[in-house]
Amino acid sequence: MLPLSVDTFLSTHQDLLWLLTVAIDLSLTLLFYRWFGKMGLYTIVILNIMLSNFQGPKLTMIFGMETSLGVILYSGIYFATDLLSEKYGKREGQRAVLLGFVASVSMVIMIYISLRFLPSSVPEHVEFAEKIHWAIATIFNFTPLFVFGSLLAYLITQSFDVWIFHYIKEKTQGRHLWLRNNASTITSQALDTILYAGIVWGPIVGFREAIHLAFAKYIIKVIIAIIDTFFIYWARNWDMNDKDWNETSHQQSFNKDKEE
């Protein structure tokens, strides 16, 4: 897909690739928000939770630390819910969390059903069909522990993030956006890291190794939280009333009823 020279450069500069991926993820969140308002942020939450589940089992090296690739997109969810909370209130932030949870459950169910279908036995396609079947099974053949642990950690920590964001906002009377954005994300990410390491990675790789992975993931999550502060300040003052399709549609319908 990429020219060989670019692919080689990125392969030998993994830390730069990581920073580029973080910037792309946060920029996409702003673009979706700019184009579609809060509906775009809902979409980002659902998209990122699905992609982070897909990329979660992939281990890589960032800044000399072994970590899960899914941590990038998963951390981006906190940015989207914080932006929703800041612009539209606690209820909308919590709604996005629940949408992401339901989407994850739906994905797990549908993937599980798809793996019950046997690959094609047509001689011309059997090799290709079996290769694809087992590739999908390798990535998506979730254990009950993985499913329960990841969904539980997501629901608890994302809900906690929304709650503490508004708790700090109330205590500071709406001032210090940088404080509530970082404090809510960093504390909820710490809780998420502990839960995920103990429930999901511990039984798979051993609790000693899980703690090592958890530390690396948490450091990376904190870095992303600091970076996304600049993005949330940028988006906070955007006037997005014309992008709220639900309210616009409702208002137009209301006006039409009045005219009739």
In short:
By secondary structure, the chain is mainly alpha-helical. Helices cover 82% and strands 3% of the residues.
Looking at this protein, list some descriptive labels.
mainly alpha, two-stranded antiparallel ribbon, 10 helices, 3% strand, globular, disordered C terminus
What do you see in this structure?
A two-stranded antiparallel sheet has the order 1-2. It has one domain (13-254). It is built from ten helices and two strands. The N and C termini lie far apart (57 Å). It has helices spanning 4-12, 14-36, 38-55, 70-88, 90-115, 126-140, 144-171, 177-205, 207-236, 245-259; strands at residues 59-62, 65-68.
Topology:
Layout: H1 4-12, H2 14-36, H3 38-55, E1 59-62, E2 65-68, H4 70-88, H5 90-115, H6 126-140, H7 144-171, H8 177-205, H9 207-236, H10 245-259
Antiparallel strand pairs: 1-2
Please state how the strands of the largest beta sheet are arranged side by side: 1-2
Strand coverage percent:
under 5%
- What is the overall silhouette? globular
**Which class of secondary structure composition applies to the elements?**
mainly alpha
Number of strands: 2
Q: What average pLDDT do the residues reach?
A: 83
Return the domain count: 1
The percent of residues in helical segments reads over 70%
Secondary-structure element pattern, one letter each: HHHEEHHHHHHH
Poorly predicted residue ranges: 253-260
Q: Sheet bearing the most strands, described? A: 2 strands, antiparallel
| Alpha-carbon distance between the two ends | 57 Å
Taking all Cα atoms into account, the compactness measure Rg is 21 Å
Please work out how many helical segments DSSP would assign: 10
